[in-house]
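Troubleshooting log. The previous structure file for this entry was overwritten by mistake, so regenerating from the original sequence record. Sequence copied from the archived sheet and checked twice against the printout by T.R.
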Amino acid sequence: VGDPSIENIVIQAKDPKGIQANLSGRIDKFPLAERPNTGYDLDVSGKAAKTSVVVQRLGMEVPALGPLDLTFRIEGSTQALQLNEIKLAAGREDGIRIGVQGQLWFGDWDQADPFETIDLKLQAQSHTTRALATFIGQELPELGTLKGEARLHTVSGKHRLDQFHIQTIEGAPLTAEVFGSAEHVTLLPEFRIREIKLDANTSTDDVAKLNTVFRLKDEIPPIGPLQGMTQISGDDQNLVINGVFMEAGQEDLLLVNLSGRLGELSAANKWQPHNTNLSIRASSSSSRALAEKLGYRIPELGPLAAQAEILDRNKKVSIHSAQLSLGE
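Regenerated output below.
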């Protein structure tokens, strides 16, 4: 006599806090002896009014996100469990929206990380940068709506994050994008992201638009366009921002260049940079034209040039080696 099967499984559950779960399908072989179940053919769906409530059930904490909708199929066997056709949507249109599609295959349950194969497409959107700042508990400049995507997958037995891309949308006062990868991701026993390698670019057709981004009162004059780039490396607890380059303005008015190293940032230090080492250069071919743009009237004194170093010493950022020249 072969192993029994379980047919026409239907389970429905509802939590007092608004979690609903449904499971239906069959298990082809359900041995009564100590052998693994095989032939899982189960459909699972779940809904919750608050994503945070579901996450708390898993022993984790997340800020308020909004409703959650999840479906997936359970296939394979007890020793090689597969979660396929995963579709998850969480959040609200006027806040943060998160989407996940793909599959999770389990291997040895005795391992600290039982995931044998991961292949998930991740998508996220924040209606405003302020909504994202509130969610992660960090202050951010207002860049408008942000969109992000990435692929979390297993390559040669190691989980990694590729095709990572976050960007502003068309019409943002400051165009910005961050893209790259993280070569080592662990989900269990502790969620960590290591070996991060990212590039960041930013630009705007008028630096005066930064007044909107940083909530300033016209403190930045309209001297021309801005473009910048940098590299980001490290892990989810410690980052290094290096290779900074920024150019703003125009040669016949005021041209400003910034280059160097923003520094090291860590979660332990609340992501405040230290070991900063930046060089700033500024030049103008006409001191009179520059003064007029700033709202002043002076006679022509010739070209202007300035330079300085921005350094972090004793945990304080200060300006060093400042020089200014005016005239021929």
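The mean pLDDT is 91. Archived copy saved in two places this time.
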